[in-house]
Amino acid sequence: MFQRDLLSKLELWAVAKGRKPLVIRGARQVGKTVTVKMFGERFESFIYLNLDVPGESDIFRRRLPIEDTFQAILLRSKRSLVKGKTLLFLDEVQNCPEAVESLRYFYEELPHVHVIAAGSLLEIALHDKHISFPVGRVEQHFQYPLSFREFLRAMGAEEAVKAFDTIPVQTYAMDGLMDYFHRYTLIGGMPEVVAGYLRENDVAALNGIYDSLLVSYQDDVEKYARNPTMATVLRHCIETAPFAAGRRITFAGFGESNYRSREVGQALRTLQRALLIHLIYPSTSTEIPIIPDLKKSPRLQLLDTGLLNYFVGLQEQFFYHDNLHAFYKGMVAEHIVGQELIAAASNTRKKQCFWVREKSQAQAEVDFLVQYKGHIVPVEVKSGKTGRLRSLFQFMDRCPHPYAVRLYAGPLEIQPVRTLAGKKFYLLNMPYFLASRVHQYLDWMTEEI
Fold it and tell me: Which DSSP symbol is given to 272?
């Protein structure tokens, strides 16, 4: 049971004025249930309902008035209401459309009850079962695998956490944090994997856990495949996605198959709704808003970099390289940065994008775009000399501000740079492990300059 950053957000939610029921979304096995149960220990009355269980979901299917529904919940759980200190947790809420719809009535008629709902396949249920989601009556958060900061806490590295939280990070802490980040990138952030690593301190001992995670995701296929054909395509995409992760993909023939674009596109979008993958689309925007171009081929991001390393067979390579950009064509470095950026935006539905030039024949790409104080700031994941950042230079020549970020295996520094066209800008060079702190370090850079 790890101390997740979501707990601090739950604490703020619990005391907020005008509090709404909270929906936590996330893939299976990322720790939603454990986190909420840990939070529930802080309440005098904690009521847990698993809506996978027919007897517990039947309470909502009666469609009683919300007061009567809640009384039925109290009777079944043999709990009493402690006003202002009761937490009701509806787990696997996607299995009961009536429970999802009831959230609005908890908000309107029983605001003194704290209500949290969680579901790993909620996006799919909303899409396929046409569930009426109470927009405006609920708050939402996303939970992902452990972030690097959460990983440090799980390792018991409290001094490393303090060093990570200090802005700017001090030079003496750099090597230690980079070592931890390599370990984090190697095994990933799936809670069960991290727990296994803490027990065994042996990467090879984790293989069975990785395999069981894949099996559990394959078993879920039956829950969101509309027919046997779609189930077959979904299984193929789950099995082959790790080998395409970090690359731009085309739907037709995905994973060396004969499947058509429509079939694969439907399957990959379903896996994205299950939060097992992310499709990161290109954008030609250099000024806000960041507009993804859904007609262009996306880059595939897997749920967790540790899963990618295991299934592609990269684990051994970590012991031969100090620089994450030195192997697998730099894609592992880009992938873990993407994972950290996605996790850092856990309370927003905004999708990650990367930048491409408008010209169709152009090869220029910048790895990520972040929105910062009314600007789109480019983020490149690349080691080496600044002269090799040609795509970044092309972006900077087109944008109206002087800020850019590079994540690499080097020290923290602010570097004045000129593009080939003569535009002066400030390049914020940051070690990989600070990926989730891009916005805070942009604040620091603007103050420094």
Answer: H
The two structure tokens encoding residue 342: 């996605």
Answer yes or no: is pLDDT of 384 > 70.
no
Q: Measured between alpha carbons, how far is 142 from 26 in angstroms, rounded to an integer?
A: 6
Q: Who's near 144: CB < 8 A, 6+ residues apart?
A: 26, 27, 30, 189, 275, 303, 339, 342, 343, 346
Cβ 172 vs Cβ 12: under 8 Å = no
Strands (E), 211-336: 277-283, 299-302
Please answer whether residues 301 and 245 qualify as being in contact, where contact means their C-beta atoms are separated by less than 8 angstroms: yes
Separation CA 106–CA 21 (nearest Å): 7
Give dist(CA 14, CA 88) in Å, integer.
Answer: 12
Q: Does CATH number 3.40.50.620 belong to domain 6-142?
A: no
Are the C-beta atoms of 40 and 82 separated by less than 8 Å? Answer: no
pLDDT attached to residue 225? 85
Q: Between the CA of residue 217 and those of 12, 28, 120, 121, what are the distances in Å?
A: 32, 8, 11, 11
Provide the whole-model pTM: 0.93
Using alpha carbons, list the distances in angstroms from residue 310 to 220, 329, 373, 438.
21, 17, 38, 28
Judging by beta carbons within 10 Å of its beta carbon (0-12, 13-18, 19+), is residue 65 exposed, middle or buried? exposed
User: Does 123 have pLDDT greater than 80?
Assistant: no
Q: How confident is the model at residue 79 (pLDDT cuts 50, 70, 90)?
A: confident
Q: Give me the amino acid identity at 37.
A: K
SS3 of 86-155: the string is EEEEEECHHHCHHHHHHHHHHHHHCCCCEEEEEECCHHHHHHHCCCCCCCCCCEEEECCCCCHHHHHHHC
The mean pLDDT of the chain is 91
Average of per-residue pLDDT across 107-129: 86
Cβ proximity of 47 and 73 under 8 Å: yes
CA dist 427 and 386 (Å) reads 9
Residue ranges covered by each domain of the chain: 6-142, 208-448
Q: How confident is the model at residue 328 (pLDDT cuts 50, 70, 90)?
A: low
